[in-house]
Amino acid sequence: MTLRELKKRVDRAINTPDAENLEVCITNNKGGWGGTAVTKVKHATKGFDWDSDKFMISPEVEMIEK
After folding, report:
1. What does DSSP assign to residue 23?
2. Helices (H) and strands (E) in the chain, counts
3. Residue 7: which pLDDT band, with cuts at 50, 70 and 90?
4. Around Cβ 2, how many Cβ atoms within 10 Å?
5. CA separation for the pair 57, 66 (Å, rounded)
6. In this model, does residue 2 exceed pLDDT 70?
7. Could you give the CA distance from residue 7 to residue 13 in angstroms, rounded to a whole number?
8. Measured between alpha carbons, how far apart are the two ends of the chain, in Å?
9. β-sheet bridge partners, residue 41
């Protein structure tokens, strides 16, 4: 996904009645009952130096890839 594609999705979501209360999260594979398992987002920023071609989203807690 590019930043432009992400912006289009955010722009669509921002025009909903509950937009001010939407929490930004990353889905994870922890499973469980009820809604989708998620990890909260701590930070989002454009990278610099070697990462200048990336927009990075950081989770509130460490996530380990399976």
Report:
1. P
2. 1, 3
3. very high
4. 8
5. 19
6. yes
7. 10
8. 21
9. 59
- Separation CA 17–CA 37 (nearest Å): 23
Residue 66's pLDDT is what?
A: 65
25-65 per-position pLDDT tens digit: 999 888 778 889 999 999 999 999 999 999 999 999 988 77
Q: Encoding tokens for residue 33?
A: 């009952």
User: Do residues 46 and 52 touch, judged by C-beta distance below 8 A?
Assistant: yes
CA-nearest of 56, 57, 54 to 41 is 57
Separation of alpha carbons 20 and 26, rounded Å = 18
pLDDT recorded at residue 31: 76
Residue with tokens 């989770």: 59
